[in-house]
Amino acid sequence: MTNTITVSGNLTADPELRRTGAEVPFARMRVAVSRRTQNADTKEWEDRQDGFFNVTAWRDLGQHAATALRKGDRVTVTGRMMRRPYEADLGEGKTETRYTHEIEAEDLGPSLRWQAWTRLEPRPVAVPQDRGEGADPAVDSVPELAERAA
After folding, report:
1. pLDDT, tens digit (0-9, with 9 covering 90-100), for 86-144
2. How far is 25 from 92, CA to CA, in rounded Å?
3. Which of 133, 134, 122 is nearest to 17 (CA)?
4. Which of 12, 18, 25, 79 could join 103 in a cystine, given CB atoms 3.0 to 4.6 angstroms apart?
5. 1: Cβ–Cβ under 8 A, 6 or more apart, which residues?
6. 108 beta partners
7. In terms of C-beta density within 10 A (0-12 exposed, 13-18 middle, 19 or more buried), how is residue 111 classed?
8. Domains in the chain: boundaries
9. Which residues contact 13 (CB under 8 A, 6 or more apart)?
10. How far apart are CA 83 and CA 32, in angstroms?
């Protein structure tokens, strides 16, 4: 039995490139999946929102995604659906284990269904300066890739 999922949708923000404590690069992104259907009664086209998927791409795949993809790009992602636990703060010192589902990308790239894709020059990747409360302590910020892209 395989655990493979493929989704096509639009990036809700630029991919965010980070590193683990062991300096392994990865990119996180969110893909909005929707489809247009024709209403049988009115014959009008309607947008149907199917959902949002969190995607993690590791190592070179993550670096390439952060360099080449931008908010709004239509992408196709193939990977494994993963379930990850986290501790939710309920207040008064109480916590609860909850779970989130995300796609661990094996492959991803621009979708050519509705537009042609032109290879772009690599761009520097924005590095978050302040991850704020609730940030994942296991990851560190990533230095900009400007030198590597040149």
Report:
1. 899 999 999 999 998 899 999 999 988 877 777 666 666 655 545 444 444 333 333 33
2. 36
3. 122
4. 79
5. none
6. 77
7. middle
8. 4-149
9. 29, 30, 71
10. 19
Q: Rounded to 10 degrees, what is the CA torsion of 138, 104, 58, 85? A: 10
- How many whole angstroms from its chain centre is CA 104? 9
Asked if 16 and 27 count as a contact pair (C-beta separation under 8 A), the reply is yes
The predicted pLDDT at position 36 comes to 79
Residue 112 token pair: 């050519």
- Tell me the residue type at 28: R
**For residue 150, is pLDDT > 70?**
no
**Separation CA 82–CA 46 (nearest Å):** 31
β-bridge partners, 99: 85
Overall fold of domain 4-149:
OB fold (Dihydrolipoamide Acetyltransferase, E2P) (2.40.50)
